[in-house]
Amino acid sequence: MMLRSINDVRIAPAGDSVAYVVSTPSLPKNEHEAALFIVAASGGAPTRLGESIRIFNLPTPRPQLRWSRDASIVSLLAFDNGRPQVFAVPVNGAAPKVLTRAPEGVFAYEWAPDGKSLAYITRDPMPAEEERQRQDRSFVIRADAPDRATRLMVQRLDASTPRALTPSSQYVDALSWSPDSREIAYSAAPRSGFTAAYDARLFAVTVDAGAQRTIVDRPGMNTGPRYSPDGRQIAFISTTGRNDVMATRSLTFVPAAGGTPRTFMLDDAWVNEYEWARDGRSIYLQANDGTFGRAQHMFEQPVVRLTVADGRVERLGTGPTVAFSISVSDEGPRVAYKSVDARTMGEVAIMDVASGRVTTLTDVNPELRAFAPGELKPITWRSFDGMEIWGLLLTPSGVPAGRRLPTLVYVHGGPGGGFTYGLFPQFMHLVPQVDPYPTAAMAGLGYAVLFPMPRGGAGYGEAGQRAIVNAWGEGDYQDIIAGVDHLIAQGIADPDRLGVMGASYGGYMTNWIVTQTGRFKAASAGASLSDLSDTYYLSEGGEFMVGYFKRPWENRESYAAHSPLTFADRVTTPLLIQHGEADPRVPIAGAWKLYRTLKAMGKTVELEVYPRGGHVLREPMQQREQMRRNVEWFTRWIPIR
Fold this sequence. Notes:
Number of strands: 36
Radius of gyration: 25 Å
CATH topology of the domain at 371-637: Rossmann fold
CATH architecture of the domain at 371-637: 3-Layer(aba) Sandwich
Number of helices: 10
Shape: globular
Largest sheet: 8 strands, mixed
Helix content: 10-25%
Distance between the termini: 26 Å
């Protein structure tokens, strides 16, 4: 909990300096504190700016660093009267200035290319009647009542009153200015909620007249538009007409005037971030799975350059790394990003595209050099049907060859998630302390940790994700067990000292595993599912289950057959259940169901409920307690010797 994390990176237009934000957990304040720095692209000591402001860092989303065209200002989101607003932080060290006063705060924003205006996304203010009802406590929550709209606003920097450019019937989630500052492209859905992104369409609106037009109107996800530098094309991320959580999220182009979208599949890659090159001929992106994320490379997320004219793609840089928060300079070009190697928390790196040379600019956790963080490397094995399965293996530093190790299996979330390199291999793209399992500390105590990537998750393309449709706990379970058997056969894992852990889908799989076998001596399940029908009926993302199992009344037998609760009587493994009290994604009801069932059956089980906790825990004190308890739980049941 003393480790720092870089959670936003932005290169200056000229490519001569880089702004970045460092997040540090504060146990006394019980919050993640953020600090803004600027460092020269050539290296050297960083300069801290904006010390008087409280940067938006909860710990997500990013503070959204942006540079003014003349590079005299870095802007970002920081708190003003308890709400995130856009602040301008002068590079010369002058006092920061708040630029927006949105009553509900700013969610996302962009500078106009001419530097005269800001566009931002905010929620409509609370109606006076609702405010009155909340004050006199007569307010009632009504099921399926629409949320207040998220609107696209534009504000000139001459202190003019902000203007709404979108109607209350739209929920805007992303925006992009045209190069001439006359129009804004944006993505919006007709509703809010967990799956709203799969109903998002692309629109454009003129800034002066407010005239709106539709650019892309088709089913599925169409989000994150970005104008090309010449204004002729708009890039966006799309599921190519499919409303499906397992559909590939591809980089897509459409003429700015409207027309037929053109999709670059990149062999099932899920594009997460992208930036246009200044000349408009190429795009720099970061993705998981697909062309550069298969086999031993599935734990990497390198910077990739796509040539717009012919769709040719090439990986930039060498060596296993994970790139997050990428940005591209206007000149050079240079690409800056957070670069995560196997046993690090990540550093700011800058790449000269012409030469491919990468320079690390920061050293945010020098204390790590005093520790032995273990060795993390890819491994592979064959599953029951011959399918090649991959995973990461973390082993303690300095272990003599031939010694069998107590081994913990860590199952990722999703199911469509996965692991990358880094000290917290599931959350290196976030403030990573949200990971409930401190695997580096566990390796420091003498445990090996297996991070399997079973079918159903990232790394095997869309077909691999669909391999567990109506089949959770079948092939994916056997993939994991085959990995354990491989480590035992290799003389690495001690078959009498095995543990299993995971959260979300990983928590489901942990619960499932202990109902199918007694070979694990301890288990810890976080934010876990035990009765699959609960997820449909009670979760914010209930429709998520339909893609896998249909609706409960349409597939009753399968819901029961794949629910750990159905087989609770088989459990012999001591089980620790950890759950956030206010988890909207995986309701706590399932944790109580499994706990009370196992307790009534006389099984060894403990349940810990984290007040105010959601699907992940965001308060440092709770994060530390959760990690501490997991270490305590496994050392209690699985001796290190």
